[in-house]
């Protein structure tokens, strides 16, 4: 039994060190990608549910890998968070989004607000407000054109610290969004106290629409509470006409998802801004 135990231990140990090696490799690859400036942003529109009018967009990071092609964030955000590289990557995203808004403006396009994802680590670091303010100032970006998407885990920290950081962002004049709502533990009243402007309801709720009565009822309850609290509601991950119809009858304010458009490169987003109505 002892021998077996020892064997298991060695096996486990070897397994761990493989993972460690893998992690170090991934960290190095990510560091190198940052140095080589291989990250780009794609943009996904958010539209008015009733009319299809373009309201806003979300900036989503991609890694343009020289051999692997376009690498989605699921494959590197975790590593970036575990290694702390998310702070650097997050700064790059802020910089690129502000630079892009300025370019679109210079091209005379009817630019709509761009929301930027901020990870919990980046939010709790306490510098995100200053970093954003600096990028907006250098690129002369109007704060009305910027939103910050925070997950519920950003708001799980000590209340005063969280409220202070969110107040700092508010003072910049940017919109505050809560991402993936419903997957964490925050309540709507808590979000209202934090002066959240927009609530993005997680895709997990959208997929239940029209499929099961309970899911639809839950969504309806979220919409009516948000309406009473004057928080704008966005349904994420809308993929079908059926889901869109359900959201229209629930009077959910805005929708985002493949049914309207996948995330697209900046040039395609420019064309969508000119088109204005996306369905
Ligand atoms: P998220 O913030 O919830 O972003 C929405 C994700 O859902 C995006 O995936 C988007 O492409 C995808 N999506 C949009 N519409 C649909 C749909 O109709 N159906 C389905 N199945 N998916 C849809 P993406 O771009 O792969 O990003 C995944 C996650 O990575 C994001 O989830 C966000 O948590 C993170 N992420 C992306 N960019 C950044 C960034 O710049 N900074 C940070 N911290 N995280 C980011
Ligand atoms: Ca988001
Ligand atoms: Ca989301
Ligand atoms: Ca209202």
UniProtKB/TrEMBL annotation:
Residue ranges of every copy of the EAL domain listed in the record? 23-277
Query: Which keywords does this chain's UniProt record carry?
Result: Membrane, Transmembrane, Transmembrane helix
State if tRNA-binding is listed as a keyword: no
rRNA-binding: is it a keyword of this entry? no
Q: What is this protein called?
A: Diguanylate cyclase
